[in-house]
Write a structure and sequence with these properties.
The chain has 67 residues and is mainly alpha-helical. The protein is built from two helices and no strands.
Length: 67
């Protein structure tokens, strides 16, 4: 029996979801004292913001630099 792949239609664009998650991670990090968990949250927030910018750049119709 072949399993069917579950498909989810995303209503909110990827860039917005990543930006929102980064905002929430930074808010959680602000409530913590300096520690490893806080640094991990900030690292994840930076990663999400970078990914959002790259995705936006790749999806833009403008000219691109050669890869």
């Amino acid at each position: 029996m072949k399993r069917r792949r579950r498909r989810v239609v995303q209503i909110i664009p990827l860039e917005e979801r990543l930006t929102q998650q980064a905002r929430e991670l930074r808010q959680r990090a602000r409530r913590l004292a300096p520690c490893r968990e806080r640094e991990a949250l900030l690292r994840k927030a930076r990663h999400n913001e970078t990914t959002a910018h790259l995705t936006e750049w790749l999806m833009s119709p403008g000219p691109r630099a050669p890869i």
